[in-house]
Amino acid sequence: MTDMPPAILPPERFQQRLLAWFDAHGRHDLPWQHQRSPYRVWVSEIMLQQTQVATVIPYFERFMARFPDVASLAAADQDEVLHLWTGLGYYARGRNLHKAARVVVDEHGGTFPVHSLEEMAALPGIGRSTAGAIIAQSTGRRAVILDGNVKRVLTRLHAVAGWPGRPAVERRLWALAEHYTPDERLVDFTQAMMDLGATLCRRGTPDCARCPFADVCVARARGEEKRFPESKPRKALPTRTTVMLLLQDREGRVLLEQRPSSGLWGGLWSLPQFDDIEALRAWLDARAPGSELEPAWTPFTHVFSHFRLEITPQPARIGRLDAVDEARCWYDPADPASIGLAAPVKALLASLAPFALTTTAGP
């Protein structure tokens, strides 16, 4: 443990303080804490990646109602999985959830390999920390976690300098997490570490007055609570532009096409996209001759983690369209199908009045 900064407390004292706080103030009634199983814990952990608990709860409950076990999830079509994921964002999580379910069924006989951290971490979309959380919370066996909440807690308690995404900094945090993790009460300890970060040691406004470690926190002693954890060095987000075609037929249906399985909005259904209006016109001339363009809607911006996408919705009425292939479909806003939709596309479709094209509408 040469990478580990000086510990603020011996492991036993750290555990005692944390668990006493958790028993009095922790979260004990989250839906995945009841009928706790590797499957339910896994789904919750994937949904909770970069998403707050309050947002996740209704998605989790709908997901469990439709897919109560890993076999039902593995047997589902990806479209239905992504439909239930629509709105949670970071859609690679939903695709990997589906892939992992099929791996568990096909390669592990429908049973999660919770006996092995390495086998759990090898499942699509899981990784070391999530594997540890699933094992600890579903079996009670000792496994170490280091999610975003835990990183924030440990970084502040020990004033660990540097962006936690850097390998050297992450090694120090793993060493601390390993040092403090007990051999008993793993379910509660794991939840307590996550709760402490989510409810007290928050990103922007830590509630130090109620923290069980306020008297030993190095960042607080320095008056630098808000400095830690240090942010990733920022680069200006580049802006890309796209024109989305809102092509409606006489019945008010809208043409959608499925995105490639990898890349932006992978596997989701979207409006046809073009680099510019000239490319859109050329596509209409070739595929839907006689179509009439309406005035373009006001452009809006959708922000991703690594770039900004400026979207110009371009409505059109169809004259004639060649046969729709498997990668395209007609979507009826008045009777929506259960398919996964990219968030801005969902907003655009929701703005369409049934059976009519409103040229002044917008997302």
TrEMBL record:
It comes from the Bacteria. Its cofactor is [4Fe-4S] cluster. It catalyses: Hydrolyzes free adenine bases from 7,8-dihydro-8-oxoguanine:adenine mismatched double-stranded DNA, leaving an apurinic site. Residues 47-199 form the HhH-GPD domain. InterPro entries: A/G_AdeGlyc_MutY (IPR005760), DNA_glycosylase (IPR011257), HhH-GPD_domain (IPR003265), HhH_base_excis_C (IPR023170), HhH_motif (IPR000445), MIG/MutY (IPR044298), MutY_C (IPR029119), NUDIX_hydrolase-like_dom_sf (IPR015797). One of its GO terms (molecular function) is adenine/guanine mispair binding. Gene3D superfamilies: Helix-hairpin-Helix base-excision DNA repair enzymes (C-terminal), Hypothetical protein, domain 2, Nucleoside Triphosphate Pyrophosphohydrolase. Its EC number is 3.2.2.31. GO terms for biological process: base-excision repair; mismatch repair. The keyword 4Fe-4S applies. Pfam families: HHH, HhH-GPD, NUDIX_4. Binds 1 [4Fe-4S] cluster. Keywords: 4Fe-4S, DNA damage, DNA repair, Glycosidase, Hydrolase, Iron, Iron-sulfur, Metal-binding. Belongs to the Nth/MutY family. Adenine glycosylase active on G-A mispairs. MutY also corrects error-prone DNA synthesis past GO lesions which are due to the oxidatively damaged form of guanine: 7,8-dihydro-8-oxoguanine (8-oxo-dGTP). PANTHER family: ADENINE DNA GLYCOSYLASE (PTHR42944:SF1). This is Adenine DNA glycosylase. It comes from Halomonas ventosae. The lineage of its organism: Bacteria, Pseudomonadati, Pseudomonadota, Gammaproteobacteria, Oceanospirillales.
